[in-house]
């Protein structure tokens, strides 16, 4: 067919138009392909769960995503099964019993050491009354001999065992109203008189500084005080000056 003057042949026009459409189609499809690639990466990172909703209609791609998730699940199951079949850490009964004995021995040794430290720090002798005033000493007094010392303090002031020992007697006593006798390890006996009330019983072991009575004014007394004596070698032994006896043991009155 002959082309008219100034008009392009029909075949040429058709080819040019077709070429333009093809270039536009290629240009438009390039971003879509890039976008699909990005979506595919996100879907795979998320486990392939959103592949169908992102326009991926390709059967091989969807199948690959499902396979990846399945493989991941199987890998987790395989890991759990591997943990279950691993041998459990343990010790023998004999080893456990040995450990128990070791701990018990360690605790006993520690308790013994602590008890020894407490015993070492504890005073072995004390003044029988804290803060008392010495009102009468050992020796002649009013035409007789005073075989002890008098320690004055307010009524019901605590009275203490001067040293460790065992209570020999506790109760009513002539001249003292009430009295307590304590036997010490060296055989000496200390005597406490005129108390208002007694807090120990015969046969009871007492530590130095333990409260044995409350100071009073019973018996032949001119005011609230403790009459304190020391009998060397036993209850019927020689009565010695309590001030010197206490001083020899580091106690001042």
From TrEMBL:
Pfam families: Peptidase_M23 (PF01551)
Domain of life: Bacteria
Keywords, sorted A to Z: Hydrolase
Protein name as catalogued: Murein DD-endopeptidase MepM and murein hydrolase activator NlpD, contain LysM domain
GO molecular function, one term: metalloendopeptidase activity
Coiled coil: none
Entry keyword Hydrolase: yes
InterPro entries for the chain: Cell_wall_metabolism_enzyme (IPR050570), Dup_hybrid_motif (IPR011055), M23ase_b-sheet_dom (IPR016047)
Domain M23ase beta-sheet core residue range list: 145-242
